[in-house]
């Protein structure tokens, strides 16, 4: 097990303890229909439009002291904590990977206090194997960053993505397009949900995200930057004020795959990420017809079942081998070095999140000792933005691993978002 995985497991266990103390307060939260918040309440609007809010379910109510204790358990600095927070699971309409109507869930977090009208942080999460790890359902590390930003005084929308949380179907891991549509529609749903709690949103939007979510944050910025549908306010009624992704895999073909072969990605994380990627992307692109074309025996008969949304990382590590070379057939192991066909389609579809020209300032946070998503990804992103005339500094968080990069960066980002005008 990698250092990142060990740390993540330890954080999850300690945070569950921290949240348990706050759990009784959840039932006291008041929802959109004035009930006591013990069950989801249906929204008034039942149209089929994307972003339509279907239900709001209170899931947490923490004092300022409890938020600080929660963040401290996760090794997150607490100097930006100004308020307690209330959190809600939103259920809303969106579309699936084929553009067909479906639903998704996400976490809306509001500060208890501060300004009446709130700026909104979109906070997109990293790789999650089990659907219940998602921010709206897991009382652990998935809520660290959302609670941090809400406690600093902003509303936070943290989408679960498709197939995670309470959304139906399988999660299309690393499918940028569907992660963006789910995130956009979460922003749409957040507006009436926040207003119903007496905290209207200003339209100012701040984008952040970690790991997979860092890449999603950049792609979401690109999507929002390409639209101006509401009187100049910006994409979908929001104006992006700042982008601060952390340790995102922005360059799969140019950084992540080469790093798998030259040792910059540790073996255990490589097995998890690439098996997950290949299985999920094969549902969208023709990478293989039979798992045995890609995976060695006996793993070919087991790997797809691991990514059904009901298995966790620990299940993957128990079943799969210690490194990617032992996982893949010799032919596919070599093919990965020179992608073609469906594999190249998948990589091309999910690279390019930094190939655009943001109007808002961008800071790319990363860790020098990250062996999950090497810092070269951030440098590739900065280079892509530079080709479009945008200077985006790579903010090196020092000799920290993958999860450590967001632990160090998150409070800095909260302070920066507070200073951006």
Topology:
Blueprint: H1 3-26, E1 41-42, E2 53-62, H2 64-73, E3 84-95, E4 101-112, E5 118-124, H3 144-151, E6 155-159, H4 176-196, E7 201-210, H5 212-225, E8 239-246, H6 252-262, H7 267-282, H8 303-306, H9 313-319, H10 324-327, H11 330-335, H12 341-350, E9 364-366, H13 376-387, E10 394-396, H14 402-419
Parallel strand pairs: 5-6, 5-7, 7-8, 9-10
Antiparallel strand pairs: 1-2, 2-3, 3-4, 4-6
Helix pairs in contact: 1-2, 2-3, 4-5
Describe the protein:
- This protein is 39% helix and 17% strand.
- It is α/β, with parallel strands linked by helices and 421 residues long.
- The protein folds into 2 domains: 3-250 and 362-419, Alpha/Beta hydrolase fold, catalytic domain (Rossmann fold), CATH 3.40.50.1820; 252-350, 434 Repressor (Amino-terminal Domain), CATH 1.10.260.160.
- It is globular, with a radius of gyration of 20 Å.
- The model is unreliable at 1-46 and 227-233 (pLDDT under 50).
């Amino acid at each position: 097990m990698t250092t990142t995985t060990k740390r993540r497991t330890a954080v999850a266990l300690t945070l569950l303890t921290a949240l348990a103390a706050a759990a009784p307060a959840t039932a006291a939260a008041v929802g959109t229909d004035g009930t006591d918040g013990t069950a989801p309440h249906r929204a008034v609007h039942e149209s089929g439009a994307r972003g339509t809010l279907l239900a709001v379910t209170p899931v947490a109510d923490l004092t300022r002291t409890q938020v600080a204790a929660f963040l401290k358990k996760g090794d997150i600095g607490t100097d930006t904590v100004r308020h307690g927070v209330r959190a809600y699971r939103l259920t809303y309409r969106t579309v699936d990977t084929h553009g067909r109507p479906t639903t998704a869930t996400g976490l809306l977090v509001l500060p208890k206090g501060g300004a009446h009208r709130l700026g909104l942080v979109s906070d997109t999460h990293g790789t999650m194997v089990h659907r219940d790890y998602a921010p709206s359902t897991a009382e652990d590390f998935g809520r660290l960053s959302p609670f941090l930003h809400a406690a600093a005084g902003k509303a936070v929308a943290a989408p679960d993505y498709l197939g995670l949380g309470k959304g139906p179907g399988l999660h299309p891991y690393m499918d940028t397009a569907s992660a963006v549509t789910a995130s956009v529609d979460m922003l749409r749903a957040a507006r009436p949900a926040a207003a119903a709690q007496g905290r209207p949103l200003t339209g100012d939007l701040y984008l952040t995200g970690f790991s997979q979510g860092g890449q999603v944050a950049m792609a979401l910025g690109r999507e929002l930057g390409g639209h101006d549908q509401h009187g100049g306010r910006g994409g979908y009624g929001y104006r992006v004020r700042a982008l601060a992704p952390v340790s995102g895999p922005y360059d799969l073909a140019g950084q992540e795959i080469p790093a798998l072969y030259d040792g910059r990605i540790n073996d255990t994380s490589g097995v998890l990420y690439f098996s997950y990627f290949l299985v999920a992307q094969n549902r969208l692109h023709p990478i293989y017809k039979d798992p045995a074309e890609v995976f060695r025996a006996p793993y070919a008969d087991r790997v797809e079942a691991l990514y059904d949304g009901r298995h966790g990382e620990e299940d993957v590590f128990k079943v799969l081998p210690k490194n990617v070379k032992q996982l893949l057939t010799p032919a596919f192991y070599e093919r990965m070095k020179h992608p073609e066909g469906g594999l190249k389609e998948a990589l091309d579809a999910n690279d390019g999140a930094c190939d655009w020209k943001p109007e808002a300032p961008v800071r790319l946070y990363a860790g020098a000792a990250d062996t999950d998503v090497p810092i070269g990804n951030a440098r590739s992103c900065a280079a892509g933005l530079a080709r479009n005339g945008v200077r985006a500094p790579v903010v090196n968080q020092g000799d920290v691993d993958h999860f450590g990069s967001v632990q160090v960066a998150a409070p800095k980002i909260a302070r920066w978002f507070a200073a951006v005008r």
